[in-house]
Specification:
CATH class: Alpha Beta
Number of domains: 1
Strand content: 25-35%
Number of helices: 5
Number of strands: 5
CATH superfamily: CBS-domain
Structural class: alpha+beta
Length: 98
């Protein structure tokens, strides 16, 4: 629930879901809006959600050595606004956004 609360409270566009130091999913603001709509707009239902309930299982990830022009092309190709940046071990380091 923390990642969902963090996305909503910080107005972030994306939150990485990490397990054992590896990115296992991502939750976007759009994912939360779609899930909220499926709950018929019941705000109290959000408190029961877990990250697994609304996360994407195949988030867009790039290496920390990816050049910006390549990252921009990946975002355009995938039609996304953010990419999760990981180090050589797959540990998340940050976000690359448009």
């Amino acid at each position: 629930m923390n990642v969902i609360r963090d996305i909503i409270s910080s107005r972030a566009m994306l939150g990485a879901v990490v397990s054992n130091g590896q990115v296992v999913g991502a939750i976007t603001l759009g994912d939360l809006v779609r899930k909220f709509s499926s709950l018929n707009g019941k705000i109290e239902s959000l408190a029961c959600l877990k990250a697994l309930d609304c996360m994407s299982l195949s988030p867009a990830i790039i290496s920390h050595v990816t050049v910006c022009s390549k990252a921009d092309q990946i975002m355009a190709d995938l039609r996304v606004n953010s990419l999760i940046v990981v180090n050589d071990d797959g540990f998340p380091m940050g976000l690359y956004t448009s």
